[in-house]
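re: ur question from yesterday

yeah so i grabbed the chain u mentioned. its 181 aa long if i counted rite. heres the sequnce exactly as i have it in my notes:
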Amino acid sequence: MTTASNRTAVALLVPLVVGAVVAVVLGVYGSLHTPTGVAVNLAGFSSTQSVKAWLATVVVVLAIVQLLSALKMYGKLGGAAPAWVAPVHRWSGRLAFLVSIPVALHCLYALGFQSFDTRVLLHSLLGCFFYGVFVAKMLLLRKNGAPGWSLPVVGGLVFTALVGLWLSASLWFFTQSGLTF
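ran it thru and got these structure tokens back, copy pasting raw so excuse formatting
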């Protein structure tokens, strides 16, 4: 292996390992921590589940903005991206992350890592994976020498995990309870 390929491997490996450690630590904490049942609630919402479902829906909408702006920046939607696309991409990502925090804290702290049925187990696994791959993506953003394909692939994994989380919780909630607030 050449020195350049060693640097490329390290530039990719370090963020992936750190992300994997984050995912495992979240899963272990969620498994060992006794759930408190303490709920995140906002005025105007009928239940904790509705707060989480709607906040997660906002996150998914912002993630779609992320996806479309990334595709435009990478030239996959035709032509060069206007100057406003990069700031929209950055800010939609920041907002998505911030809006996801109360949902994740409630899930991890109040409910923990659960596996009493397939949907809940999948949701728990996806939640840990999502934050692990998110950390890897954030670390790859500033890594010189990482392969050009790595950021779009890891970003795609972030988006896929988020959609899986939304499907396994918010969509499930909306189909069970309707579009309640």
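noticed a couple things. Residues 137 and 155 are 6 Å apart (CA to CA). also Helices lie at 3-32, 48-73, 85-111, 118-141, 150-177.
anyway ttyl
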